[in-house]
C-alpha cells in the first residue's frame, strides 16, 4: 500500500452505493435502449447493433461464418445489416448458443446480455489491475466507480457488439503485461498466458493488435536489462501461439478480402487523404467528444457545448497530474510505463485509422481502458492526499457522471 493512503477516509459505503447505481443504470440501458438507430426514453440506439446481431443469427442458422459483400457506406447497408461480417468471430460465437436458446426475436437481448456480463467482468479485472499497481483500496474503488459510471463504457457494454469482450480481454492483457515487469515468473508460463490472451484478443477484434508491439518492446527491454538473448527469443512462444490460433482467421481475411485486417471491406474505400493537420485535428476532436458520450442524437445548443467543452478542458490537467505522478517515482512506476506504452499504441492506432477513414469514435481508445482509468483517477488521488481524498472522490465521480447531463437536452 502506498504510504500516502494512511489516514484516508473509508470509502466502502460510497463505493457500494455508486457501483449499485451504475449496475442498475446498465441494466436500464440493456432493456430500454432501442435496437438500431432509433430514439426512445431519450436514449439513442446503436446504429450497427442489428448488424452485430445478424452475424450471430447467421451463425445459428448456418453454423458457418458469413462472408461480407457490402460495406456500411453503401446504400441500404443499415437496412440490410450485413456490414459487420468481417469482424473476428469470438464474441459472436459466445453469443450464438444464447440466441439459439431464446430464438431470433429475442436475439438482440441475448447478445446484449453477453456484452453486459463482459462489462461487469471488466470492472472486476480493473480492480485487480489497480491492486497490481499497488493502489490502496480507496483508489481501486474510485477507478472502478469511474469506469462503471462512464457513459461510453456503460453504453457499449449494455448493447450488442464485440466491443465489450474486446475491452475485457484488453484489460486482462494489460494486467498480464504489467505482471511481466513486476514479477519474475516462469518465462514459459508467462509466454503461454500472453500468447493465449493475444490470440483471444485478435479473435475478438483486430484493434487489439495494438498489444503486440507493446509486448515485443517489453521482451526487448527484458533482453537489454538482463543482457541475455534468451530473454528476447522467449517472445517466439507467444508469437507462435498467436500465429497458430489466430493466424487462420487472418489468412481467411487475406484470401476473401485481400487484407488480413479487412478494414477496407469493413469501412469501405479509404478517404482521399487530407492534409495531416486537419486529419489529426478531426481525430482529436472526435475522439474527445465521443470518449465522454457515445450517442449522437443530442442537438447542438449552448448548454450542450458547455458540457462537451468541459470534458475536453479537464484532460490537459489530468495529463499534467499524470506527469507529476511519474516525477514522484512511486512504487508503481514500472507498471505505469507499461500503461503509457499501451495508451500510446492505442493513440497511434486511432490516428492511423482517422488518417485513412476519418470515422473516429471515442470507443476506439477503449482497448487501453486500464491505462485510461488509471491516469484519469490515480494521479488526482495522489495529488489530493489523504486530507482531500473525499473531495477528489466527489470531483472524479462528477467527472464520470457529467456527460449523462446531455440526455436532458435530447
Automatic annotation (TrEMBL):
<keyword id="KW-0328">Glycosyltransferase</keyword>
<feature type="transmembrane region" description="Helical">
    <location>
        <begin position="194"/>
        <end position="219"/>
    </location>
</feature>
<keyword id="KW-0812">Transmembrane</keyword>
<feature type="transmembrane region" description="Helical">
    <location>
        <begin position="231"/>
        <end position="251"/>
    </location>
</feature>
<feature type="transmembrane region" description="Helical">
    <location>
        <begin position="332"/>
        <end position="353"/>
    </location>
</feature>
<feature type="transmembrane region" description="Helical">
    <location>
        <begin position="365"/>
        <end position="385"/>
    </location>
</feature>
<feature type="transmembrane region" description="Helical">
    <location>
        <begin position="143"/>
        <end position="159"/>
    </location>
</feature>
<feature type="transmembrane region" description="Helical">
    <location>
        <begin position="391"/>
        <end position="409"/>
    </location>
</feature>
<feature type="transmembrane region" description="Helical">
    <location>
        <begin position="305"/>
        <end position="326"/>
    </location>
</feature>
<keyword id="KW-1003">Cell membrane</keyword>
<dbReference type="GO" id="GO:0016763">
    <property type="term" value="F:pentosyltransferase activity"/>
</dbReference>
<dbReference type="InterPro" id="IPR050297">
    <property type="entry name" value="LipidA_mod_glycosyltrf_83"/>
</dbReference>
<dbReference type="GO" id="GO:0009103">
    <property type="term" value="P:lipopolysaccharide biosynthetic process"/>
</dbReference>
<keyword id="KW-1133">Transmembrane helix</keyword>
<feature type="transmembrane region" description="Helical">
    <location>
        <begin position="113"/>
        <end position="131"/>
    </location>
</feature>
<dbReference type="GO" id="GO:0005886">
    <property type="term" value="C:plasma membrane"/>
</dbReference>
<feature type="transmembrane region" description="Helical">
    <location>
        <begin position="13"/>
        <end position="32"/>
    </location>
</feature>
<keyword id="KW-0472">Membrane</keyword>
<protein>
    <recommendedName>
        <fullName>Glycosyltransferase RgtA/B/C/D-like domain-containing protein</fullName>
    </recommendedName>
</protein>
<keyword id="KW-0808">Transferase</keyword>
